[in-house]
Design a protein that fits this description.
The protein is α+β, with helices and mostly antiparallel strands. The protein is about 15% helix and about 25% strand.
DNA sequence: CATATGATTATG
DNA sequence: ATAATCATATGT
C-alpha cells in the first residue's frame, strides 16, 4: 500500500529542524486488525540535556529514556498519567538524546478501526470533519487510534509496521508556533515556541 | 522500600 | 474544575 519512507537522513538533524518538517508527513501503523494512518498536524521539539522540559534533561539515561539515546528514526514511547501513551520520533545522532513529540494527526486510513479503538459511538457516515479530527487531536488519542503502545517502543520508523511516509507538503506560511504544552516546571524553557502547528482547513 | 507525580483525557 | 490510574523517578 505504501512503499515510500522518510529516509534516515531526514531524522539525523536537530529536533528543532525536524519538528516543523514532520508536519504533513503520514504516520502509518500496520496491525493484524488493519492499517490506520494520519497526517501529522502538530509536533513539539525536545532538545535533550540542556532542555529542562525534556525527559533527558541533564543527560538522564534510564530504562524509559534509553531509546532517545539510540539512533534517529526510531520510536520513543512512554506512558503518561498511568493511562495514555505518547509517541515521539527520535532525532539527531546516536548519543544525542533529542526527540519530537507527535501531538496530533489528521486521520487518513482505517477510520472505522480508529472509531472502534477510541470507542466512539457515532456512525462513520454521520461523522463531521470536526468529530473526525477529534479522533486524533491529542498525543494520547492518536496512540489509541493507531494502537501504538510500549510494544512499539524503539520501533524502526523506516520499517514496515510503524513508519512515516512522505505524505503531503505543507506551506511554511501555514505553520504556527506556540509554547509547549504542560511544561510549566521547565522555567524559561517552557516559554520557547517549540510547538509547531499546521493550520489546515478542517473540511479539506 | 516508599512516595510523588506526570510531554493527558473525559466529563461535569 | 477534577478524577482516573500506574510506571517511572527519586530519595532513604
Amino acid at each position: 500500500m505504501y512503499t515510500k519512507r522518510l529516509p534516515l537522513s531526514f531524522y539525523a538533524r536537530s529536533a528543532l529542524e525536524v519538528a516543523p518538517e514532520l508536519l504533513g508527513k503520514l504516520l502509518v501503523h500496520v496491525t493484524d486488525d488493519g492499517i490506520t494512518s494520519g497526517y501529522i498536524t502538530e509536533t513539539e521539539a525536545y532538545m535533550g540535556p540542556e532542555d529542562k522540559a525534556a525527559h533527558t534533561y541533564g543527560g538522564r539515561k534510564t530504562k524509559r529514556t534509553q531509546a532517545m539515546f539510540g539512533p534517529p528514526g526510531h520510536a520513543y514511547i512512554y506512558l503518561i498519567y498511568g493511562m495514555y501513551y505518547c509517541f515521539n520520533v527520535v532525532v539527531a545522532t546516536e548519543g544525542q538524546p533529542q526527540a519530537v513529540l507527535v501531538r496530533a494527526l489528521k486521520p487518513k486510513d482505517g477510520i472505522q478501526l480508529m472509531l472502534t479503538r477510541r470507542q466512539v459511538k457515532e456512525n462513520l457516515h454521520l461523522l463531521t470533519p470536526k468529530k473526525l479530527y477529534q479522533l486524533t487531536n491529542g498525543p494520547g488519542k492518536l496512540c489509541q487510534a493507531l494502537a501504538i503502545t510500549k510494544e512499539q517502543y524503539g520501533c524502526d520508523l523506516t520499517g514496515s509496521t510503524l513508519f512515516i511516509a512522505p505524505g503531503i507538503s505543507v506551506d511554511h506560511h501555514d505553520i504556527s508556533t506556540k509554547p509547549r504544552v504542560n511544561v510549566d516546571y521547565a522555567d524559561e524553557w517552557a516559554q520557547l515556541p517549540w510547538r509547531f502547528i499546521w493550520e489546515f482547513f478542517l473540511d479539506s
